[in-house]
Amino acid sequence: MRAEDRRWAWAEVDVDAVERNVAALRACLAPGTRLMAVTKADGYGHGALEVARAAMRAGADRVGVATLDEALRLRTGGLTAPIQLLSEAPPRAAAKIVDAGLTPTVFSPEFAEALSRAAAAQRTVTAFHLKIDTGMNRIGVRAEDAAGFVESLRGLPGIAMGGVFTHFATADTPGDWEFERQLERFNGVLAEFRRRGIDPGVVHAANSAATILHPEAHFDMVRCGIAIYGLHPDASTHGHVALEPAMAVMARVTRVARLAMGEGVSYGMTWHAGAPTTVATLPIGYADGVRRSLSNSMHVLIAGRLCRQVGRVAMDQLMVEIPRGVAVAVGDEAVVVGAQGGESLTIEGMADLAGTIDYEIACGFGARLAKVYRRSPASPVSS
Asked: Which of these is catalytic: 40, 286, 359, 373?
């Protein structure tokens, strides 16, 4: 049974758009520079497995995730590509990491020792990537301690350093001195490694923003997340690369009601009809990713017309006011994100209204909405 037949609310993901976005990002790179497609948070709400497959078809070299469970779901789904954990897992997870052939992140001696024991027990060698904290102060070995930490692991059997990476806090802010300082620290660590005869393996630092704005930070590989979904990491990256949003969010009208002047709508009655008007109900709400904070401020598209959302967005439903002269019936298609009749609504626009970032809005749509995957010809791009 189709997703649309089970429930009149769903998301459509254009896998061809994902492929074109990966190709556009690869065009920013020097020959030989690798690209990691980051599919954590269920592919930023788009569906990790299908996105990973599309990214690999477009030339990505590996996939990055945040958690062991995310990685195992990809393996269970049949993905054989290299998968990297971008956060350090709990020590007790080491054996499963080795079993699944994953590339773990290491920055603590406790996890390194657990990984060594697990790999040695299976008579194999697991290559890890060392996370270096160059100033974001979130996770990682501090830059000044990195070389000594690597040397402390030399006697551990079953593990070998396959790469070194860091993460930028302000790569999306052109000219920011914090970015320059982080990059300088990272280059300093690499120089210290060379001085001590330590092979860093695959060196990577650039997220989507740095991939687009900072070629000096590309090193051996870049890690692209938000951009492969056709969303810009910041307004500063617009105009540098052409990206196509891959997700549309759809619903069908479940009820049409004529309201008299003064009648209210939804919890708290935060909106009342100022005149006789028509209100349509859509079976989608904040449990599906439509933020409650957008109540009375967002729009949807019905019959190619912008329709104002009215009343509080509920867990499973929202209501919209139908413009005068527009005929609407139960079963008509509504667009929450996407295009219809020459108009369009974007995740970025929704994020602006909600006072947040497109990352959070996109991830929210992964919570409950069924995904419909489709292929398409080239569509208009966001640059």
From this structure: 40
Q: What is the pLDDT of residue 2?
A: 79
Helices (H) and strands (E) in the chain, counts: 12, 21
What per-residue confidence (pLDDT) applies to 27?
A: 97
Find the helix or strand (DSSP H, E) in which 21 lies: helix 15-26
- Containing H/E element for 347? helix 347-354
Polymer length in residues for the chain = 383
- Known active-site residue 359: no
Q: Tokens in use for 324?
A: 């005068």
Considering only CA atoms, which of 89, 72, 82, 107 is closest in space to residue 223?
82
pLDDT at 376: 78
> What are the start-end ranges of the H helices in 197-268?
208-213
Residue 371 a catalytic site member: no
| Residue 382 pLDDT | 43
Model pLDDT, residue 378: 56
pTM of the full structure: 0.94
Number of Cβ atoms within 10 Å of the Cβ of 95: 16
Burial zone of 45 (CB within 10 Å; 0-12 exposed, 13-18 middle, 19+ buried): buried
Q: What is the pLDDT of residue 383?
A: 38
Domain annotation for the chain: domains and CATH numbers: 15-230 (3.20.20.10), 247-345 (2.40.37.10)
Give the active site residue among 44, 267, 286, 373. Answer: 267
Q: What is the DSSP string of 36-84?
A: EEE-HHHHHTT-HHHHHHHHHHTT--EEEESSHHHHHHHHHTT--S-EE
All residue ranges of the chain with pLDDT < 50 are 379-383
Q: What is the pLDDT of residues 292-330, one digit of tens each?
A: 999 999 999 999 999 999 999 999 999 999 999 999 999
Strand, helix or coil at 27? coil
* Amino acid (one-letter) located at 101: G
Q: Residue 132 is which amino acid?
A: I
